[in-house]
Specification:
A motif (Cysteine switch) lies at residues 79-86. One of its GO terms (cellular component) is extracellular space. The structure is a single chain. The protein is an alpha+beta fold. The protein folds into three domains: 2-76, no CATH class; 106-260, Collagenase (Catalytic Domain) (3-Layer(aba) Sandwich), CATH 3.40.390; 290-477, Hemopexin-like domain (Hemopexin). The protein is built from ten helices and 24 strands. It has helices at residues 2-22, 27-33, 46-60, 70-76, 125-140, 213-224, 250-260, 324-327, 421-424, 470-473; strands at 106-111, 146-149, 158-163, 181-183, 191-194, 199-200, 211-212, 302-306, 309-314, 317-318, 322-323, 338-342, 345-350, 353-358, 361-362, 367-368, 381-385, 392-397, 400-404, 419-420, 434-438, 441-446, 449-452, 468-469. The strands form six sheets. Strands 2-1-3-5-4 form a five-stranded mixed β-sheet, covered by helices on one side. Strands 12, 13, 14, 15 and 16 form a five-stranded antiparallel β-sheet that branches. α1 (2-22) packs across α4 and α5 crosses α6 (213-224).
Length: 478
């Protein structure tokens, strides 16, 4: 009986809170403010409204009904970050490694003292610096970067300040109803705290109406490092500052490593430094064994455009006759089957493993094909197809191919695959060995010939004038 009374009281309390919050919610305006609907109009079809609501519900971690029900209005009224959940320009959610990052190993931040005009803000400069220092340390621990407070007189990369609602008429992110703060991604990086929020000095938001300054600063610093919101309710990058104990989820850690590289372990006094690697010999006229093979002598290489340079792999070497393990330390010295670039990271396929490389460093343990939903011991080739936005990623093996789901943060195979290659790729030459992308078009390699495809034609066949020999395609190597 007591349990029933408690349940009834709890139910009434929740319903009361939802009803009170509903009074201030304008669902259409909310959906426009946070990128789910285009701004500048109030005329939307039922279907577009339903899709927008379902996307919002997914990001809020509630049941995806497509209806503006009580729980939806309740979440719309919760304190949250002011950054849109959906990129306004593209109307598509990007959840993955940061596209815009700081191209440096030491990132600085600075905290501006609250101005005399910020009379409603109760926290001091010391409080903000303390929260920022703690946030910077926690993000720094995840990757091969150091986030530190800028010395006096040095312009910081990330500037943290307290601002009033409507502080800049030209600002693209004014404080919306219920927003706590917002930030700008690299190369800007500014973090703005809402003057009207009564922040408290706790590690987490523990009570309604008492938002943790640290929780908000560490979240906004994630934006300043280049990351978007995600739908994991316990993630530091969840958009809503509800009563919860957030954490850096495996997804957050993965994206941080993918964007900034894995943290290097610090040597201790008892740890002997490994010997310096031997320099890679430079080919000379006398060292014929080191002379790179001519491109006309190479058949079925793996080709990839990585950081505006073409790498051409053959067996366990690159065409400059450099061992792969020398260019990418930690990568196994074994023939590779395929390579492609995914959101700025180099994916190298060796048997049933995928090595993910940032710069020249492997960022984490290899991904298995099985973890992507592909039960094969190896693949034949891989490529991006820019016919779709974002580009679609395809993997081939024998007579089958898979498409990786662009909406899945870990790029798992689309559940509708595998399919037979002959269904959609019938005009691709038989027995191709590898593929790569150039000028947003797919190029297949067979023997020492390159076949450029034409995506603009309905039949999707080989471009006029192709195939051509590898050395003719890469004539700048000659």
């Amino acid at each position: 009986m007591n349990f029933q009374k408690i349940s009834i009281i709890l139910y009434i309390f929740i319903k009361f809170r939802i009803s009170r919050e509903e009074e201030d919610v304008e669902p259409t305006k909310f959906l426009q403010n946070f990128g789910y609907l285009p701004a500048g109009t109030h005329q939307f079809s039922q279907e577009s409204m339903r899709k927008a609501v379902k996307k919002m519900q997914k990001m809020a971690g509630i049941r995806e009904t497509g209806e503006i029900d009580g729980w939806t209005k309740y979440m719309m009224a919760q304190p949250r970050c002011g950054i849109p959940d959906v990129e306004v320009r593209k109307r598509a959610k990007r959840s993955g490694p940061a596209i815009s990052t700081w191209n440096k190993k030491v990132i600085t931040y600075g905290v501006l003292a609250p101005s005399s005009n910020a009379q409603k803000f109760k926290r001091s400069l010391v409080d903000i610096r303390r929260a920022a220092r703690q946030a910077a340390q926690q993000w720094s621990d995840l990757a091969d970067i150091e986030i530190i407070e800028a010395p006096n007189g040095v312009k910081p990369d990330i500037r943290i300040s307290v601002e009033r609602d409507g502080y800049h008429q030209s600002c693209s992110f004014p404080f919306q109803h219920g927003t706590l703060a917002h930030a700008f991604q690299p190369p800007y990086g500014n973090i703005h705290l809402n003057e009207n929020v009564d922040f408290v000095m706790t590690n987490f938001t523990e009570n309604f109406g008492s938002n943790s300054l640290f929780s908000v600063v560490v979240h906004e610093m994630g934006h300043a490092l280049g990351f978007d919101h995600n739908e994991e309710k316990d993630s530091v990058m969840f958009a809503y500052d509800t009563i919860r104990k957030w954490r850096f989820t495996e997804r957050d850690r993965y994206f941080m490593r993918m964007s900034y590289g894995s943290k290097k372990s610090s040597p201790t006094s008892s740890t002997r430094s490994p010997p310096a690697p031997k320099p890679i010999p430079t080919p000379t006229a006398e060292t014929d064994t080191l002379r790179p093979p001519k491109l006309c002598e190479i058949e079925n290489p793996v080709i990839v455009n990585y950081r505006n340079e073409y790498l051409i792999f053959k067996n366990a070497k690159i065409t400059e006759a450099i061992a792969i393990s020398a260019m990418f330390p930690g990568l196994v010295a074994a023939p590779i089957q395929a390579a492609l670039v995914v959101q700025g990271q180099l994916w190298v396929f060796v048997d049933d493993k995928i090595y993910v490389i940032h710069g020249r460093q492997i960022v984490h343990a290899p991904i298995s094909l099985k973890s992507l939903g592909i039960n094969e011991t190896s693949i034949d080739l891989a490529y991006e197809w820019h016919y779709f936005k974002p580009p679609a990623i395809y993997l081939w093996k024998n007579e089958k191919y898979w498409k990786l789901d662009e909406h899945s943060w870990y790029r798992k195979s689309d559940e509708r695959y595998p399919r037979n290659i002959s269904l959609n790729w019938a005009n691709v030459p038989k027995n191709v060995a590898s593929a790569f992308n150039f000028q947003d078009e797919i190029h297949f390699v067979r023997d020492n010939l390159i076949y450029r495809m034409n995506s603009s034609r309905a039949v999707f066949d080989v471009e006029n004038g192709y195939p051509i020999r590898i050395q003719q395609f890469f004539k700048f190597f000659s």
